[in-house]
Design goal:
With about 525 residues, the chain is α+β, with helices and mostly antiparallel strands. It is elongated.
Amino acid sequence: MIIGISFFRQAYLQVRQAFFALQLLTEVQTDLLAHHNAQAIRLFANAESLLRLPLHPLTFAQLQTTLTMAYERLSPLTLSLNPGMIVVWIGLTGLVIFVFWIEERRIDRLQEDKRHLYSQWMAITTAWTGHRFLTHPEELFARILEQVKKEMGLDGVEIWQWRSDPQNALTVFVATGSSILSDALPIPQAFLEPSLGLLGTVIQDQNPAYSGEASELKAIFPGLRVPNMAILPLYLQENIWGFFVLWGPEHAWYFRHQDVLKIIALQISTILTNNVLEEQARRAEVYQQMARGRSELLANVSHELRTPLGLIRGYAETLLNLFERLQPEERQEFLLTILEESQQLEQLIDNLLNMSQIEEQGIALNRRSFALKPWIVGLLRRIMPQDRQRIHISVQDTIVFGDPERLFEALINIVENSLKYSSGNIFIMSGISNGWWTVRVRDEGPGVAASDLERIFQRFYRGSGAAQSDKRGSGLGLSIVKRIVEAHHGRIWAENVRPQGFLVGIELPLQDGGKGGPDRGYPS
């Protein structure tokens, strides 16, 4: 019987090849009549390979010969058509057709399974398209797990993280619902022996492991048994980081999808590794910025401190050595210079300490509503009497929102900067528009070079003309102002005013929120 089945299968395959060859030869005739010679030659070569004939140049005579041979292969029993052979021929034909039908059904089933797995895989991979726009890997993994659960019809999909420390903590990193692990579990190393559960097998063999049905269930680890479960290892830089855990209602579901699951586990491991590498790169860049920042800070501080200290020391030594020979007005002038340089030094140190605190700890705000007009008018009490007459205030009498103390510190810095570099009037204007309140400070000074406008809010930066100016400064004032404004979710800008003058403006939200983000500080 086995020999007969083998013979019939062989006959079926020969007839099938001849049938397909006949189809190709028919297309060859059509292409030749339509003058598609190149396509006809290609199809003719395929037909001859199916009929196992030697290849030769295509002519109409050779085509007719090949067609005849195809017909002969399709009807090998037509030379002796007696009644008995006809019955045998009909039986063999029916058997060949039956075998052909079974083979075609098997091929269709395999193709359908292939299409199903392909569509399933494509649906799952949509979960991590655009994952660069997600802020945390947990969000991406949650999308992947939800898609895997939906497409494969599973009861649960989870990612467990395992820390190989003295406590061997096993925690749920991401889950699609209520987890079978309610909390972090300390898993003793003794429980991870391969003979005691699936987790130990996965750790030792570094291959996926599967539990069976309830009747033949192997524990995941002592005390936890779940039927129809698959556990795949996840890697972080070639070390086991955790586990991809799935379970479903159908026995052996994981065998049908194990290739897809291995690819998904590999993708999750790749994403974990990429996140770690990106974080390491960010830290390395931050450390480099910190080193450059400290070097710049040390150089700038040394330079800024040297000038007032040198003047204080020079005038103090002169008074000490030549006090009796100096005129009273000269002594007064020297003492006044020492006082002014001491105040300059004190202001520089205050700004340095303030900036250092801001960059290390951020800005702590006490935001609340306050009256705008008395807040700005109170500025005059902080200005020297001889400069008050130069300040002109135009402000609406309304209620605004923010930290009045921090914002007052910012406004003082802007106004004192204008008083220093302008000998004319200073105009302070404030108003409300579209849910924002603004304060603008404009002077009648020379302004700054266009190339300096984008950099004047950087710490220690002074304009290109500062070296030729007799006005000294630390370059920290506007940098502090910028950090205070950004901590309020606002913005700050500067511009030259025609025909002459310079303007610094700040824009802040009337309510909590707005553009920007909270100031949490950054390493300096």
